[in-house]
Sequence to fold (492 residues):
Amino acid sequence: MNGSGTAPAVPRPAYRRLSVEQRRSQLLAAALGLFAQRAPEDVSLDDVATAAEVSRPLVYRYFPGGKQQLYEAALRSAADELEQCFAEPESGPLTQRLGHALDRYLSFVDQHDAGFSALLQGGSVVETSRTTAIVDEVRRAAAQQILRHLGEPEPSPRLRTTVRMWITAVEAASLIWLDEDKRPTLDELRDWLVDHFVALLTATAARDPQTARVMRAALKGEAPDGPAGELARRILPVVSEAAHLL
Amino acid sequence: MNGSGTAPAVPRPAYRRLSVEQRRSQLLAAALGLFAQRAPEDVSLDDVATAAEVSRPLVYRYFPGGKQQLYEAALRSAADELEQCFAEPESGPLTQRLGHALDRYLSFVDQHDAGFSALLQGGSVVETSRTTAIVDEVRRAAAQQILRHLGEPEPSPRLRTTVRMWITAVEAASLIWLDEDKRPTLDELRDWLVDHFVALLTATAARDPQTARVMRAALKGEAPDGPAGELARRILPVVSEAAHLL
Fold:
């Protein structure tokens, strides 16, 4: 409307120039936002173009393979982000480190919501052996991080299996949590999952010498006012019924 | 070669007359046998016809929807069989009942092998929202049976979630077990999974009054020479390191 002026034109945001990498990230972020709200089969490339405020041909230029390629790229990007969640310095009580990693993981779950559910629940039209492989890679990365913190790069089969079982159980709990309107609170869920980790490892320690060694070392590093201490004190009245078993 | 005799003809097994239901069961059994050995995408209707010693048109007559229909019918049949595994009388210590159900479940896993893995690992070409729904139904049936044995038809969210987490962890352990040439033995795996059940419920009991009530009642029914007693005695030396936490 003011086209006769001499002032430099202010670029409109929708047409701002982005590098290839920036544009790709922008499209992936828009896609992840949509996948967080609805099932992958209900997200079209048109929707992504609208959400990112770009033209449909531009989306196709970046993802010539269509929705499947976009979905896999978005998944890849989410997987990378998720793997970052597991990085944690090797200091402090083990339950505290696990709690920090779970905080980041559960925030990711909270943020990606429907996309996280669709991915893990299976049966989606966009699920392929490639998407399954990406998810498995994230699980493996999580297991490796935990074993590193446990100080066992060469874990016994039982220790390794226990860690993988707990990771699967955490996924199940996350899906149920999303399904039940995110109750209990994220903090309560985190504390509970840490308790489960301690309980599973303790049970495995009863049958596996390596796990027993790991647990003894880990328990020494725990503080009385930390999660392991609280768990121990809360469990005592329950297991006092089991005195006849000893 | 002896066609001129007057003795009644002995029917050849491949052409014996079966009722529709018997024939259908025979084809499903043949299909399940093949799915146990290789991935669903590597099983053709020809293979099923060969394995069942019938003609290909006959397989198509029973499953006009082709492989997808056959796979879903085989899955349905396996799911029914699996749900039978969970039926257990409500008497005796809880860990014993759980052990019996796990014995049957793990025998099923042992027997169906590759088919079980393919089904649960996802990303298969025959996986659809319908197959996912069948698997979820089995999980729900397992959870209901367990809650019935715990005497809690109206479980608290935490109790229900814990049971579902354990079921998921059992599935994960089963897949790892198949992947690791079925080691440890089925009996050792069963005992270990029972231990994990006791440990998870005990951890949840620390934060959930209903679960605490269930656990107290269950522990009273356990025998000193049973799984819970053995677990308690084996755990003691490990948690003795945690005295500073109390």
About this structure: Chain B touches chain A through 66 residues (CB under 8 Å).
